[in-house]
C-alpha cells in the first residue's frame, strides 16, 4: 500500500516553504519535487529552455508573472492561459523562472522591470526559462498536473500580485494567423514529480519538536533515517493531514522494528528474547534549568533494560549500551496524558512509591523508569499508542523476568547482624542469617500489609501474622534500598498478574486513554 500526498518542505534558514510530494511505502519515504523534463526529441538538458512567443492580437503572450528581486525570488510564470501563445509552445510551465528576455538577463530584475521589458519587446519575444524547483509557497503557484489534483493554493491570494501579459478578451474569437505552435521535430517537455530524496524507514525516528526542546512544531515533523539523513521539516496544510501522515509513518516504522526484532530473536536463546525496542527522547536538565531532550534507543531484552544512543545492529552492539539495568529492579511509571478536553492527567499507577517531577513541559506522552539508588530516567514518545506499547512491554518483560528468575536475594543488616533477604515468586519473603543460614522469619506476599522507608537505606515491612492477626514490623537496612523496593513491587505485580491478568490490564492508564479515543 503506497500513500501519496502534497506537503511543504520548510527551510529554517530562509523561512520559506516549498511544495513537495510525499510517497510512502512500507520501507521508504520518498520526497519528490516538480521539474520540467524533456520527454522526446532532442535529449539536451531541460534546465534552460529558450522559447519564441508571437504576441497575439487577442490574449497577448498568454501568461502572467509573479515575483521579482524585491521579494528575493526570481520572476516566475504564475498563470498560462488556455489556447493562447504561451500554452501553444508546449514548452512553458507554471513555475518557470524567467532568466532572459530577448537576450537581456533578468535574474536580478524587479517585477516591474520584467513587466516593462515583456510589454515593450515587440511582436516576437524570445525568453529563456528554467523551472524553479523550490518555488517558495508564498508565491501561491498552483501545482497543476501531474499528480493529485489537490490544489492547496486555490482560493488563497498571494501577497505578490500577478501581472497578466494577456488581454482579457476571449481567445476563441479568431485563431491567430501564425500560432506559437511546437514544430514536429522539436523536443517535447512535461512537468513531472521527480524523486529527490529517499529515507529508509527501518530504525528511523520522527520528531514533532524543535531540536532538543519542548516546542511543538505546528502541523509539522521531520523524519530521520538510521544514518542521520533528515527529510527536513515536513509541513502539512491541516492538523488532520499531519496526524494522518505521522500515524502512517509511525506504523510503518513500528512494523519494520518488529521485523528487526524477529530477526534478532532468531539468534537469541528463549530466555534472552527482545520484547520491545524503539526510539524515545530522554529529558536532561540544561545549564539554565531548561529541559534538553536527546534521542535514545531503548530495548527490553532478556533480563535487562538497555539504553543506547544508536540502535544495536549486530549482536556485538548489545554490550555497547550506555546503561543496562536488571528488569526486576526498575519501576515503570506513566506521567501524564493529554485528554480530549486538553487537561492532563497525572497517573500514579503504582501506589506507595512516589517521586515528584516537574511536569511543566509540553510533551504529552511521558514515562519514567526509576532505577537503583533513587535515580530515574525521564522519556517522552510521539504518540499515545507508543506510550501504551511501552507500558505493556515493560509489564510483560518484568513479569517474564520474575518468573524466569524465581527469586532474588539481597544482603542486608539489622542491629549489627549481616542478614540475607529473599523475595521468592512461590514462597514470598524470607530473612535468614548470612553465616548460619538459619531462617529468622518467613511471610507470604498476601501477608505484606504495608511498608515505610526513610528514603535512604532503611525500610519497615508490616506483615500480618496468620494465627494472631497481629501486625509484625520487620526493619532492615539495604545498600541500595530503591532496587529492593522495585524488586518487591515487580514480584508482587507478577504474582497478581499470574492470578488475575485482567486486573493488571484494568490498571493501564495509557490503554484506557487509547481505547477511549
UniProtKB/TrEMBL annotation:
GO molecular function, one term: structural molecule activity
PDZ domain location: 50-133
Biased composition (Low complexity): 143-160
Region of interest: Disordered: 143-186
Protein location: Cytoplasm, Cytoskeleton
SMART domains, per the entry: PDZ (SM00228)
Pfam families documented for this protein: PDZ (PF00595), Syntrophin_4th (PF23012)
PROSITE patterns associated with the record: PDZ
GO cellular component terms given for this protein: cytoskeleton; syntrophin complex
UniProt KW keywords: Actin-binding, Cytoplasm, Cytoskeleton
InterPro entries per UniProt: PDZ, PDZ_sf, PH-like_dom_sf, Syntrophin, Syntrophin_4th
Main location as per UniProt: cytoplasm
UniProt xrefs under PANTHER family: GAMMA-2-SYNTROPHIN (PTHR10554:SF3), SYNTROPHIN (PTHR10554)
Family (UniProt): Belongs to the syntrophin family.
Record protein name field: SNTG2 protein
Gene: Sntg2
Amino acid at each position: 500500500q503506497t500513500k501519496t500526498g502534497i506537503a511543504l518542505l520548510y527551510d529554517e534558514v530562509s523561512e520559506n516553504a516549498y511544495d513537495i510530494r510525499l510517497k510512502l511505502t512500507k520501507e521508504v519515504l520518498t520526497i519528490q519535487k516538480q521539474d520540467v523534463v524533456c520527454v522526446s526529441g532532442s535529449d539536451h538538458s531541460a534546465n534552460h529552455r529558450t522559447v519564441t512567443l508571437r504576441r497575439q492580437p487577442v490574449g497577448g503572450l498568454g501568461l502572467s508573472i509573479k515575483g521579482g528581486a524585491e521579494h528575493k525570488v526570481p520572476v516566475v510564470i504564475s498563470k498560462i492561459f488556455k489556447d493562447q501563445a504561451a500554452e501553444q509552445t508546449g514548452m512553458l510551465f507554471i513555475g518557470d523562472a524567467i532568466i532572459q528576455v530577448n537576450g537581456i538577463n533578468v535574474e536580478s530584475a524587479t517585477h516591474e522591470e520584467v513587466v516593462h521589458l515583456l510589454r515593450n519587446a515587440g511582436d516576437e519575444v524570445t525568453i529563456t526559462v528554467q523551472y524553479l524547483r523550490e518555488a517558495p509557497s508564498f508565491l501561491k503557484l498552483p501545482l497543476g498536473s501531474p499528480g493529485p489534483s489537490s490544489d492547496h493554493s486555490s482560493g488563497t491570494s498571494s501577497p505578490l500580485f500577478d501581472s497578466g501579459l494577456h488581454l482579457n478578451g476571449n481567445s476563441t474569437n479568431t485563431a491567430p494567423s501564425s500560432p506559437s505552435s511546437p514544430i514536429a521535430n522539436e523536443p517535447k517537455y512535461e512537468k513531472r514529480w521527480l524523486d529527490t530524496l529517499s529515507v529508509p524507514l527501518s530504525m528511523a525516528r520522527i520528531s514533532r519538536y524543535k531540536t532538543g526542546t519542548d516546542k511543538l512544531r505546528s502541523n509539522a515533523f521531520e523524519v530521520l533515517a538510521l544514518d542521520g539523513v533528515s527529510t527536513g521539516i515536513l509541513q502539512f496544510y491541516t492538523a488532520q493531514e499531519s496526524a494522518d501522515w505521522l500515524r502512517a509513518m509511525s506504523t510503518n516504522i513500528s512494523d519494520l522494528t518488529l521485523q528487526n526484532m524477529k530477526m534478532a530473536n532468531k539468534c537469541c536463546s528463549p530466555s534472552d528474547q527482545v520484547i520491545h525496542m524503539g526510539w524515545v527522547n530522554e529529558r536532561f536538565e540544561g545549564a539554565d534549568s531548561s529541559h534538553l531532550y536527546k534521542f535514545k534507543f531503548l530495548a527490553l531484552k532478556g533480563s535487562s533494560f538497555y539504553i543506547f544512543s544508536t540502535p544495536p545492529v549486530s549482536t556485538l552492539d548489545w554490550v555497547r549500551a550506555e546503561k543496562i539495568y536488571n528488569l526486576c529492579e526498575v519501576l515503570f511509571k506513566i506521567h501524564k496524558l493529554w485528554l480530549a478536553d486538553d487537561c492532563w492527567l497525572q497517573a500514579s499507577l503504582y501506589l506507595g512509591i512516589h517521586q515528584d517531577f516537574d511536569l511543566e513541559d509540553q510533551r504529552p506522552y511521558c514515562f519514567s523508569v526509576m532505577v537503583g539508588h533513587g535515580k530515574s530516567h525521564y522519556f517522552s514518545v510521539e504518540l499515545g499508542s507508543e506510550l501504551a506499547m511501552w507500558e505493556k512491554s515493560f509489564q510483560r518483560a518484568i513479569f517474564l523476568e520474575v518468573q524466569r528468575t524465581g527469586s532474588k536475594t539481597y544482603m542486608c543488616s539489622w542491629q549489627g547482624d549481616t542478614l540475607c533477604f529473599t523475595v521468592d515468586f512461590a514462597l514470598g519473603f524470607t530473612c535468614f542469617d548470612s553465616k548460619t543460614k538459619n531462617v529468622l522469619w518467613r511471610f507470604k506476599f498476601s501477608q505484606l500489609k504495608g511498608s515505610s522507608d526513610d528514603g535512604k537505606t532503611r525500610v519497615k515491612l508490616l506483615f500480618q501474622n496468620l494465627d494472631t492477626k497481629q501486625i509484625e514490623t520487620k526493619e532492615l537496612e539495604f545498600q541500595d534500598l530503591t532496587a529492593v523496593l522495585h524488586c518487591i513491587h515487580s514480584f508482587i505485580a507478577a504474582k497478581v498478574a499470574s492470578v488475575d491478568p485482567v486486573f493488571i490490564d484494568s490498571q493501564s492508564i495509557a490503554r484506557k486513554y487509547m481505547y477511549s479515543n
